[in-house]
Write a sequence for this structure.
């Protein structure tokens, strides 16, 4: 449901129409972050059926269709004290359109699953949920093209994590999927391990991998001998 109290301006509505984004789904407050402060100043993201519009105070709104975003990056980090007491979760998301136009939003929240009494309506929590959904939408839009490329024998490079229908490329060698023992995501790090060795074949921070949900979908299907159905 859209937040009617902070609905889009006529200017935002025109941008959404120009990009054919469809009906409004929701609106989110975005913190303005500087070196010294982090606070709400009226910047917002308006989510529509087929994308979103970023509108910062004092700037023209910018539209992003899911199928025009080439790269989406995500980073969520849980923070703990030295005694392993949960403090908060910080997040950042960056979307890069196919023409190079980009936007980034960051924030933090207390996870209700980890902090008793945390507000499930917290603006940071809502924005992080939108960021995750946006990354999923982008990956879904990119999936048919990725599958077609793999079917043609093309290597797909996810910031150094290079995959194809045969296996994982490492330097000048190619490790077949049948030799991959494990693909693990732990504490913000994705690790690929080869059978018969304790060393990692490849390891990289999730935050550095573009379209991470797409990467996981493709790897999961390729490890089981096929390509996703689209």
């Amino acid at each position: 449901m859209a937040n009617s109290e902070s609905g889009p301006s006529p200017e935002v509505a025109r941008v959404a129409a120009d990009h054919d984004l469809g009906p409004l789904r929701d609106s989110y407050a975005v913190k303005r972050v500087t070196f010294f402060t982090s606070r709400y100043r009226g910047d917002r993201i308006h989510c529509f059926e087929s994308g979103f519009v970023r509108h910062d105070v004092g700037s023209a709104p910018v539209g992003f269709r899911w199928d025009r975003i080439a790269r989406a990056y995500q980073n969520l980090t849980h923070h703990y004290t030295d005694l392993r007491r949960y403090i908060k979760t910080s997040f950042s998301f960056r979307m890069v359109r196919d023409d190079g136009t980009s936007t980034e939003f960051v924030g933090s929240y207390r996870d209700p699953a980890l902090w008793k009494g945390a507000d499930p309506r917290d603006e940071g929590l809502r924005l992080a949920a939108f960021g995750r959904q946006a990354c999923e939408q982008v990956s879904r839009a990119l999936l048919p093209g990725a599958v077609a490329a793999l079917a043609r024998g093309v290597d797909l490079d996810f910031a150094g994590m290079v995959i194809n229908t045969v296996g994982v490329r490492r330097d000048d060698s190619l490790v077949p999927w049948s030799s991959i023992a494990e693909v693990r995501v732990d504490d913000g790090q994705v690790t690929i391990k080869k059978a018969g060795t304790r060393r990692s074949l490849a390891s990289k921070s999730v935050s550095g991998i573009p379209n991470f949900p797409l990467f996981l979908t493709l790897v999961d299907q390729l490890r089981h001998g096929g390509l996703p159905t689209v």
Residues 8 and 65 are 16 Å apart (CA to CA). The chain has three helices and 14 strands. The mean pLDDT is 92. Residues 4-145 form a domain with the PH-domain like fold (CATH 2.30.29).
